[in-house]
């Protein structure tokens, strides 16, 4: 299987359980890995045989900067669902990492994140 990786896309959204998260908002990062057969694209040099990662970026932007969710798990799930629907038959599986770099919880850590896989992925 071949993979397309789109890493560390950054967006501003209003997801969270706490009122401040939904009022003030915060940064979120998303990294994706898409399982795609890239043989024909590599042989023909034609965009139609691959997944346009500019479109994938816009899908993620629309979801993360759109409707607020309480859980980043739900945001990641929406991204996975939308990509698998739009690229049905082309994207065989995917991994979505949804990162919350500055959650309002006490302690010392770099970030919190969830990672989910769907379909045929490794």
TrEMBL record:
EC nos: 4.1.2.25
Key words, A-Z: Folate biosynthesis, Lyase
Keyword DNA damage: no
Pathway as given in its UniProt record: Cofactor biosynthesis; tetrahydrofolate biosynthesis; 2-amino-4-hydroxy-6-hydroxymethyl-7,8-dihydropteridine diphosphate from 7,8-dihydroneopterin triphosphate: step 3/4
First-level EC class: lyase
Keyword Lyase: yes
Coiled coil residues, start to end: none
Gene3D superfamilies registered for this protein in UniProt: 3.30.1130.10
One Gene Ontology MF term: dihydroneopterin aldolase activity
Residue stretches making up the Dihydroneopterin aldolase/epimerase domain: 4-118
Catalysed reactions, semicolon-separated: 7,8-dihydroneopterin = 6-hydroxymethyl-7,8-dihydropterin + glycolaldehyde
Signal sequence extent: none
InterPro entries linked: Dihydroneopterin_aldolase (IPR006156), FolB_dom (IPR006157), GTP-CH-I_C/QueF (IPR043133)
NCBIfam families given in the database record: folB (TIGR00525), folB_dom (TIGR00526)
Family note: Belongs to the DHNA family.
Role of this protein: Catalyzes the conversion of 7,8-dihydroneopterin to 6-hydroxymethyl-7,8-dihydropterin.
Name recorded for this polypeptide: 7,8-dihydroneopterin aldolase
Organism of derivation: Viridibacillus soli
